Structure to design on (114 residues):
């Protein structure tokens, strides 16, 4: 049985002073899910554990993102997280500080119904 996507949320997060790609990514995920409310689980009696969540993070240094830690941030479902090249690094020309900007796409899937 195949899955069917029913949610796609996008978010943006940053880390302004520490160049922490995981923290920027976590904020992007939180931004994506902050405004989501999925009442169908309670309304239809579908267990939220049946939901598969796929997160794609875009940052300039994907190898510096702790994907396992990010998967734990998601409140429901079985989550997988991958980091890809994207986002943006912005350097302050006055002091060389790099501001990290991450983007997140959070997709939720359920088993295809009938």
């Amino acid at each position: 049985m195949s899955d069917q996507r029913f949610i796609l949320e996008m978010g943006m997060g940053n880390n302004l002073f520490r160049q922490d790609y995981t923290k920027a990514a976590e904020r992007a995920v939180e931004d994506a899910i902050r405004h989501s409310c999925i009442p169908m689980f309670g309304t239809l009696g579908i267990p939220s554990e049946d939901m598969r969540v796929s997160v794609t993070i875009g940052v300039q240094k994907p190898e510096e993102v702790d994907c396992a830690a990010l998967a734990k941030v998601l409140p429901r479902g079985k989550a997988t997280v991958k980091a890809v090249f994207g986002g943006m690094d912005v350097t302050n020309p006055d002091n060389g500080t790099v501001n990290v900007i991450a983007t997140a796409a959070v997709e939720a899937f359920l088993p295809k119904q009938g």
Summary: The chain has a mean pLDDT of 91. The two ends are 10 Å apart (CA to CA). The beta strands are 3-15, 52-59, 78-85, 88-91, 98-111. Residues 22 and 66 are 6 Å apart (CA to CA).
